[in-house]
Input
Amino acid sequence: MAGDQGLLFDDDVAALPEDSGFRGPTACKAAGITYRQLDYWARTELVEPSIRDASGSGTQRLYSFRDVLLLKIIKRLLDAGISLQQIRTAIQHLRERGTDDLTTVTLMSDGVSVYECRSADEVIDLLQGGQGVFGIAIGGVWREIEGTLSDLPSERAAASDDPSDELAARRKARRVS
Output
C-alpha cells in the first residue's frame, strides 16, 4: 500500500474524505488508460492504490485522487514516447528527492529523458540520477540584458558621408545618378 510505496506527494490535493476513492474502471477512464495497464501497474507497484488494495477475489482496489493524478501523468509520459522503465526510474527519483507536491513541478520530456522543472533556473534530469541539466530561460536573459543595456551608452548608426568609406561612396553615387 501507500506506506510501503511512499507517497509521491502528501499535500491535500483533493477535497475528498480519506476513505473515499475511485474504483479501477473510474480511475482508468479519468487517466485514459486500460484496465489491463492499471492492473499491471498495481501488481508491479508502479502505482498502488493508496485507499484500498485488492485483497483477494471479489475485492476492488480504491484509488485516491492523487493516485489518479499520478496515473494520468504516467499516461502522458508514455504518450510522449518515454518507456515504462524510464517512467519508473523518474518516479523513483521524484520519491527519493522528497517531491511530495507535484503541483509545484513541471515535468518535461524530449522523448528520451524526463526533466523536473521547479523554476526557470532549475532543471533536473530524472533519468540520470537527479543530475542537474544546464538550461537557459531566454526570457530571463532578455530582461537581464535589457536592464544592463539601459544603463550603458548607445549610439545611432548615421549615414556615412566619409569618402574614405568605399561602400558609402558607391551608395551615394547610385542615389545621385
